[in-house]
Amino acid sequence: xxxxxxxxxxxxxxxxxxxxxxxxxxxxxxxxxxxxxxxxxxxxxxxxxxxxxxxxxxxxxxxxxxxxxxxxxxxxxxxxxxxxxxxxxxxxxxxxxxxxxxxxxxxxxxxxxxxxxxxxxxxxxxxxxxxxxxxxxxxxxxxxxxxxxxxxxxxxxxxxxxxxxxxxxxxxxxxxxxxxxxxxxxxxxxxxxxxxxxxxxxxxxxxxxxxxxxxxxxxxxxxxxxxxxxxxxxxxxxxxxxxxxxxxxxxxxxxxxxxxxxxxxxxxxxxxxxxxxxxxxxxxxxxxxxxxxxxxxxxxxxxxxxxxxxxxxxxxxxxxxxxxxxxxxxxxxxxxxxxxxxxx
Length: 344
Description:
β11 and β12 form a beta hairpin. The chain is an alpha+beta fold. It has seven helices and 16 strands. The strands form three sheets. Strands 6, 7, 8, 9, 10, 13, 14, 15 and 16 form a nine-stranded mixed sheet that branches. A five-stranded antiparallel sheet has the order 1-2-5-3-4. The chain has a two-stranded antiparallel sheet with strand order 11-12. It is 17% helix and 26% strand.
């Protein structure tokens, strides 16, 4: 029998799929987010001898098979009023009730109280000094407690702006400045400035070794060919152009090893750009467990990277604006250990 023949013999009630637009309502698994109402299914003899999870994945294709299995395991699917088992074989005369459950990613854009260090605020934008350890945007493994959640609590109107106004990100363990737009008009303007490479983004980084006084790394970045968690300098066609300018500000030592305080300025904003570029020329960041030497990661509990200065053209007034952020206490203490004076 064909899938089309099988489907035609069932009653599928209250899925609500026709009312959903397939745009920003698609989650990361490609499923459409539909109203959380029960789905009633009357199986037919055509399903006899087939595993329940296989039958359901065919009848409600808007949900992935793994999602359906999760709901079965959690007791959200019943067969004739009894909790179902995914591997159970059906007879074809059962009534199945599915109670869809919101996935974590569907609940991610909810307000949560959070202490925000606001450096600047006006009618068009916010400048936030992010602490290390804070994730900027919800993603797998971090569906709550992110900066986005805190922004929605602080200013509920940001719920009407894509990504709550966030226009660029910092890694979880990178501290420092980022800008948030308070309107779609401001966000569009700031994104265009980023695309035009006119936004000034300067970072302070402590690296192992002693790089040359100044230079530029112009090397495309893409996913590592073996480890998908990592990024890497790559010549693959999917790699994106990336340019980092660097200048050595001071030199010192940690545990008898040479270290250097670097000022890094971004032309582009690729994932892990500074970390990847500095590692690619032989000078990994102190504390970087992903790109640095593993036996040296106990010196500092995170990558020693801080978004120090941020400059841009105000999207409403047209004025050139610039903000700076003092080093957080842990980074400042690290420089003291290395006998390096913190820059002003």
